[in-house]
Design brief:
single chain, little secondary structure, 1 helix, two-stranded antiparallel ribbon
């Protein structure tokens, strides 16, 4: 996984926190690796959205930002949660039919 930099502020993010490290060239992530699925899951969690249920249309398919990947909410960057706390992402088959689905209308 390549290293990437993001600046986050407000909305439940810890102030002045630096997460992870890259190699000496700044290319590859080497410590506390976060992939783009984790990043998306974390942002959607902060917005109060379930990343498994939020979908968008593309090429006549309904897709999500994490597409059934092993994404996790990066709790280390969030205020009020201990590092390593698990935030469960609900797979699509656990959603009840009568619950409102966060889906973009066409």
């Amino acid at each position: 996984t390549y290293g990437f930099s993001m600046w986050l502020a407000g909305g439940g993010v810890k102030r002045g926190y630096v997460h992870g490290e890259t190699d000496e060239f700044g290319i590859n992530a080497v410590k506390d690796i976060v992939n783009h699925f984790d990043y998306h899951a974390t942002l959607l969690h902060l917005f109060g959205l379930d990343p498994q249920r939020l979908t968008f249309p593309r090429n006549q398919q309904e897709l999500s930002l994490i597409e059934n990947q092993p994404a996790r909410v990066v709790t280390e960057v969030l205020k009020g949660l201990e590092a390593g706390t698990q935030v469960l992402l609900h797979p699509p088959d656990t959603v009840k039919d009568d619950s409102p689905v966060q889906k973009r209308s066409s």
